Amino acid sequence: MTLASQAFKGLLRRPDLIQSQGYIGGRWLNALSGKTYTIIDPSLDAPLADVAAMTADDTNVAIEAADEAFQQWRNTTPNHRAAILQKWDRLLRENEADLGLIMSKESGKPIAEAIGEVSYAADYLKFFGHECLRYEGFMIPSHAHGRKMMAIRQPVGVCAMITPWNFPIGMLARKVGPALAAGCTAVVKPAESTPLSALAFAKLGEEAGVPAGVMNIVPSAREAASEIGRTLSVTPTVRKLTFTGSTVVGKILTEQCASTLKKVSMELGGLAPFIVFDDADIPAAVEGLVQAKFRNTGQTCVCPNRVYVQAGSFDEFSKQLVKRVSELKQGVAHQRGFDLGPLINSGAVEKLTAVVEEAIELGAKPLLGATKNPLGPAYMTPTILTNISTNMRVAKEECFGPIVALQKFETEEEVLKAANNTEMGLAAYAFTQDLGRAWRMSEQLEAGMVGLNVGLISAVQAPFGGIKQSGLGREGSIIGMDDYTELKYVCMGGLA
């Protein structure tokens, strides 16, 4: 019995969704080296599965398979691609309990959130399964008699996809859905911590009718991540690379992609401001912050990292926030009844603990938490800090965890300047009942996405992405297929 079989014994309706090999050219394969690596269940701090440790050599095989498959897939009809995506959507929903459990055990995401992510992922397959039926070019008024002019959309080709551990199925579907709908093929490198979710996703894609080579999954250990990323970036056969992850890595990949001038989409780091004005509905703002900040135990790119509360409401907001966060239950992620799970690993806890300790040494006051968590090495106690100064790391670095740093402000001009004083620009939030102020915030906050009086903003029909150093391009929405196509102008003469 394999390690994964033991870890999931009796827990899944479909044990065959647990795959530990890579998926290349329609076949489940071991790494060419024969090596595997072990992934850990962060809730239990225990080995979960041994997975094929693929490298650049395996990646090159996957690229060749994707290129070969592209020659036929590009010529399929939108109706054919739509039928496959829509069947895939149904299969995800039918197996959401199993997929959610797999995701929860390997990522530490609370089970209810994990199952919700499966539905979210299925929404992308469904959306782009419909969108490809009406995705079209356009006719252009001709400047000369006897000519017709048009612009047509064609698939860009083989697409490389590097996906994150915090949304291992959701981000994959958000990339694969539009790519396959457009007629492209894919080579996917999932995060080293969460390959089982991606492989289960591929298993259901195979059942939905995705042809061999159209989607390939290359799991790898951390040691091979940079070489695989470079291979995907510099290989001319790959015509587009999409990455969700840190700004540091995104910059490296973008620079490497420049050697072949391939298309890139980058969804990178965030340092989101969350602004509460005196005229806000305070209970609603508290709930909005809890929803935005503590989703996935604070491990999302759109989590608020800098919380600004106007002076007149600061004390009441802080009081209500402490009470609300104290009510959150933390425990084993794949067991029901918990709002928070562990962080992705013990290293993340150590890093954030150091950030909190530094803030306290510099004068921050803990209102809640800032204590060692007894549940295990990957667990961090929800923490609320006040008396924050801008020289603290907690005020200027993205904190991927359950930490809220509260800062007081006096005027709209002051907080707007502080909120925009960053190289990042992914998401921003503001709570106010002043209609004019709401419009000013929506226009003047330097972010790709703004939530006004709401803490959860992501939706399949909305364009997701950032500005400044938070990324390039947009995912989802009616423009989600654009980056997976080339726009070709055609001018036809001799028609007079």
From TrEMBL:
The Aldehyde dehydrogenase domain, residue ranges: 28-490
Keyword Repeat: no
Signal peptide (from-to): none
Pathways per UniProt: Amino-acid degradation; 4-aminobutanoate degradation
Domain of life of the native organism: Eukaryota
One Pfam entry name: Aldedh
Active site, per annotation: 267
GO terms for biological process, alphabetical: gamma-aminobutyric acid catabolic process
Membrane-spanning segments: none
EC numbers on record: 1.2.1.24
Any one Gene Ontology molecular-function term assigned to this protein's record: succinate-semialdehyde dehydrogenase (NAD+) activity
Entry annotated with the keyword Oxidoreductase: yes
Keywords: Oxidoreductase
CDD domains: ALDH_F5_SSADH_GabD
InterPro entries registered for this protein in UniProt: Ald_DH/histidinol_DH (IPR016161), Ald_DH_C (IPR016163), Ald_DH_CS_CYS (IPR016160), Ald_DH_CS_GLU (IPR029510), Ald_DH_N (IPR016162), Aldehyde_DH_dom (IPR015590), Aldehyde_DH_Superfamily (IPR050740)
Catalytic class of the enzyme: oxidoreductase
Family membership noted in the UniProt record: Belongs to the aldehyde dehydrogenase family.
Name listed for the protein in its UniProt record: Succinate-semialdehyde dehydrogenase, mitochondrial
